[in-house]
Specification:
It is a single chain. By secondary structure, this protein is of the alpha/beta class. Helix 1 packs parallel to helix 2, helix 1 crosses helix 7 and helix 4 runs parallel beside helix 5. It contains 9 helices and 9 strands.
């Protein structure tokens, strides 16, 4: 029987590229996102191209009940998940005192609570007699404080810390946990976060979604704990250890301020 990978946020960007890598390697898929039409198109595309089965689950992870609903639907259909990819996430740009509260709460629900909830549910049902994996998508934003995206940076710091702790807990078992830490990546992330004009999304600094996904996939399969897609991403993480945090928070603010 083929293994099955569940990918959240699978309708585009890094999630889509990860789903294709799993399909190419013969994994059946569970594709989770809000965009039903897109998911069905992707499922059909991969079924034809790679001869795999792709189940579509339409859920909005900003709804607290969504992880349990996903889990219950798969359990009812007898779908055993071997790899969980917590990719869904979004950001919001602006001074915290001025940003929309509901958007921040939804961000915490998707970036932190849904990821934690899904990890708890699927870790509890993973078979221990064969390898299983969890891949969480954090960011280089997990390392420094993030003025003008305060909640987003804090949420990714949680994902990094949580993933490292899980990896240590699961060491010596058949379950591996990997956290991927890309920098700014060319997806629709920028538009949704209202980041147009911010220096953090300078075209010269952008990673591309395909290479980011490949780095994450390779690291996951190799059992790595923390993966960076490229040298500049490693440099970002390393610089936080070297430079005073007062310098880092002011530098991040300066880089993220929008150009007029």
């Amino acid at each position: 029987m083929k293994n099955t990978a569940l990918i959240t946020g699978a309708s585009g960007g890094i999630g889509y590229e990860l789903a294709e890598l799993f399909a190419k390697d013969g994994y059946n898929l569970v594709l989770v996102a809000r965009s039903e039409d897109k998911l069905h198109q992707i499922a059909l595309q991969f079924a034809i191209k790679y001869k795999v089965h792709a189940k579509v689950v339409v859920q909005d992870l900003a709804i607290p009940e969504a992880p349990q609903l996903i889990f219950d639907e798969l359990k009812k259909d007898g779908v055993q998940v071997d790899v969980l990819v917590n990719n869904a996430g979004f950001a919001n740009y602006g001074y915290f005192r001025e940003t929309d509260l509901q958007k921040e709460l939804d961000m915490m629900q998707v970036n932190i609570l849904a990821l934690t909830h899904l990890s708890k549910l699927f870790l509890g049902q993973i078979r221990t007699d064969k390898p299983a994996r969890i891949l969480n998508i954090a960011s280089t934003a997990a390392f420094p404080p993030g003025p003008l995206m305060a909640v987003y940076y804090a949420s990714k710091a949680y994902v990094l810390s949580f993933s490292e702790a899980l990896a240590a807990e699961q060491k010596g078992t058949n379950v591996s946990v990997t956290v991927l830490c890309p920098g700014a990546t060319a997806t629709d992330f920028k538009e949704r976060a209202n980041l147009s004009g911010s220096g953090i999304f300078s075209e010269a600094l952008l990673d591309d979604a395909k290479s980011v996904a490949k780095a994450g996939y390779d690291g996951l399969m190799a059992g790595e704990v923390i993966m960076f897609p490229g040298f500049k991403d490693k440099l970002t993480a390393f610089s936080v250890r070297v430079f005073p945090r007062s310098l880092m928070r002011n530098l991040v603010k300066k880089v993220q301020e929008k150009r007029q």
